[in-house]
Known about the structure:
Elements: H1 3-15, E1 20-21, H2 46-49, E2 59-67, E3 83-92, H3 97-111, E4 119-124, H4 134-146, E5 157-160, H5 162-165, E6 166-167, E7 181-191, H6 198-201, E8 218-231, E9 237-250, H7 251-258, H8 271-281, H9 289-309, H10 319-338, H11 344-358, H12 369-396, H13 404-414, H14 418-427, H15 434-455, H16 465-484, E10 491-496, E11 501-506, H17 513-528, E12 533-539, H18 540-545, E13 559-565, E14 583-586, E15 601-610, E16 613-620
Parallel strand pairs: 1-2, 4-5
Antiparallel strand pairs: 2-3, 3-9, 4-7, 6-7, 7-8, 8-9, 10-11, 11-16, 12-13, 13-14, 15-16
Amino acid sequence: MRSADIRKKFIEFYVTQGHAEIPSAPIMPMNDPSTLFTSSGMQPLVPYLLGQKHPVGNRLVNSQKSFRAQDIEEVGDNRHTTFFEMLGNWSLGDYFKKEQLPWIFTFLTGELELDPKRLYVSVFEGNDAVPKDTESIHIWTTLFREAGIEAKLGERIFTYPAKKNWWSRSGEPEKMPPGEPGGPDSEVFFDFGMELGLHEKSIYKDEVCHPNCDCGRFMEIANSVFMQYQKQVDGTLKELSQKNVDFGGGLERMAAATADDPDVFNTDLFAPIIKNLETFSGKKYGSALQETQAMRVIADHLKAATFMINEGLFPGNKQQGYILRRLIRRAVVKIHQLGGAGSKSELGAKVYQAVGEIYDGVYFSSQSQEFLGLSQVLTEEIVRFEKVLKKGMAELSKHETISGTIAFDLLQSFGFPWELTYELALEKGQQVDRDEFQNEFRKHQALSRSAAAGMFKGGLADHSEATTKLHTAHHLLLASLQQLIDPTIKQRGSNITAERLRIDVSFGRKFTSEELQKVEDMVNKKIKENLKVTRVEMPKEVAEKIGAQMEFGTKYPDRVSVYMVGLNESIDPTSATSADYFSAEFCGGPHVSFTGTLGHFTIVKEDASSAGVRRLYAKLA
């Protein structure tokens, strides 16, 4: 079954159950500083899971483009990817387990025609705070019985602790920060069979195989999260005012299950990319493990890079730009290892185009001038890194003996991964001390984790008073930049904590100190005027007509939420013009009710974020 058919069937199935289809949010979240990328379908919906009314209703469905940076090092096996599509449906305080579990079982066995005998499920075993999920066990037992299958605990239905069957963005309950929603989940696994061969190679080969043993026999294809709890400041869990369903199923994995092939890279979501790599290298995918793993890394990383570039991201040395650069450079290294006589940048352009064609009409217009023009971002970075690669190899040639420390220095300075240094050392007849390299690498990881922990404290999702004020100030700042400097300025990203706001905007040069002072003065003027902040729901086309600002790269539903600052109260919001308000933006909130509560606004600094993008930092006092 084609992946496009699976996506279409999923959306249509839940629409018939009264769900409204919502568009995919950007892969780079605009107002969630707790993470660099959108890593799940629920992430953009946190305010609504916490009780805020969604503009289109309380039953939602979509396919969300997602990226998980923590999986970069895992890519290379048959199932891990950094970029993926998450098919999702949500109940915002409407239906719950007795509706959700039968629906997903019907979708998998009916719409996708998967054999129910090859489906296994897991549920939460319970702990001191949350009881065992006996309701889900009963529902699954009944569903399998109706399909002619006796589903016994420990044979078809398995219970696991929170590490496996609890979901929140931060993991199990003890890792959840205050304010974070989460809950027990129930997962569905597809059985590819013992004859797969992976089980025999598993570290679990001497243990009894089960869905969560990670041996390769089973693949999780669906996860229904019953999001009904919120972490409190005192560390306890409190039930939310509404019980939510948050379902997520990887499109790539569902496609693999329908094809009865455990390798997601054999699906049509990757096949055209792999074909380009085979042509370039003269190697056959699947014929040799090392070459196959290299093709998987290249295909995944360049696909993710294509999506990021088309949301306006440029390779850089900080945060999201650094991740993009890392993806491209890891792909180039793997292309080097794969071999091939052609140009690496030309291969990059072909893969870029293949990605566009795979998702043409879904996320891209692959023949548009805008899409075709952005391929230059990828090819220029490949050319740039090829020069760095040559320098690194020249440095490597200076050393008669390559120690683990030198190998790590090459990684830090030139982006040389261990595998490349190791292979080049072998060509020189040398052995590299891997333990020494790993020790240096672990030190680096510890420092990186410490830095990340400090970087991502707080976040807009906590809805604290300080963060909410800065979110409103963010709107005032963007409007002031457009009115005083350049009306074509657009937001390219933001990061708002309780301490400060950060905004990236499209602008081709450094702002002058005089310009920044004028902008700062205007924001403070609008704060003193104590303008009313009004939230209005309206059709998307009406919001566009009145000039409301949209987040770059975002697809919006037919009905949207717009926050308007300083709206003339005698004017109908749906017929307003730019003269009737100071600021209007598509936004889910939260915001203050009047600007006079914000305090004094100060622009702290301004610098470059990436090519054509400037970054401003500001605070309130």
